[in-house]
TrEMBL record:
The gene is Trmt10b. One of its GO terms (molecular function) is tRNA (guanosine(9)-N1)-methyltransferase activity. It comes from Herpetotheres cachinnans. It is an enzyme of class 2 (transferase). InterPro entries: MT_TRM10-typ (IPR028564), MT_TRM10-typ_sf (IPR038459), tRNA_m1G_MeTrfase_euk (IPR007356). It catalyses: guanosine(9) in tRNA + S-adenosyl-L-methionine = N(1)-methylguanosine(9) in tRNA + S-adenosyl-L-homocysteine + H(+). This is tRNA (guanine(9)-N(1))-methyltransferase. It comes from the Eukaryota.
Length: 134
């Protein structure tokens, strides 16, 4: 869970986020969502890294969120980045938890998606900012 009101403080609990927060305050981040995260709402709680489903169970996080009647969103990678030419023809919007955290915390500080995505999306994912292509 990622709450901007306590960006440098983390609490752990055995309780489910479903029991801790109202459903309408939870946004489940998943690369399979049709909804683009355009801004961070400090009144929302963002679930990141619930599951890693890049290759084995495609769309599992999206299905889990939908099954729990939660809002979903994805980082705006396609909107601000371009696919880099690479020998493996590999492009992935699935990020590790620390990468998503880096993107969100950088965006919160800078209010710039390009800066945030540059901070969190490694070139190994196959995406770069348009100015890096030139």
């Amino acid at each position: 869970l990622f709450s901007l009101s306590c960006i440098f403080q983390m609490d752990t609990t055995q309780e489910s986020y479903l029991d801790l927060f109202p459903l309408d305050a939870i946004v489940y981040l998943t690369p399979d969502s049709e909804n683009v995260l355009e801004d961070i709402d400090p009144n929302k709680v963002y679930v990141l890294g619930g599951l890693v489903d890049e290759s084995i169970h495609k769309k599992l996080t999206l299905q889990r969120a939908q099954g729990q009647s939660l809002q979903t969103a994805r980082l705006p990678i396609r909107e601000y980045m371009v696919k880099a030419v690479n020998s493996r023809n590999y492009h992935s919007e699935t990020l590790a938890i620390n990468q998503v955290f880096d993107v969100l915390s950088t965006y919160y500080e800078t209010q710039s998606w390009p800066a945030a995505l540059k901070a969190g999306v490694s070139s190994g994912k196959g995406y770069v900012l348009p100015d890096a292509v030139k």
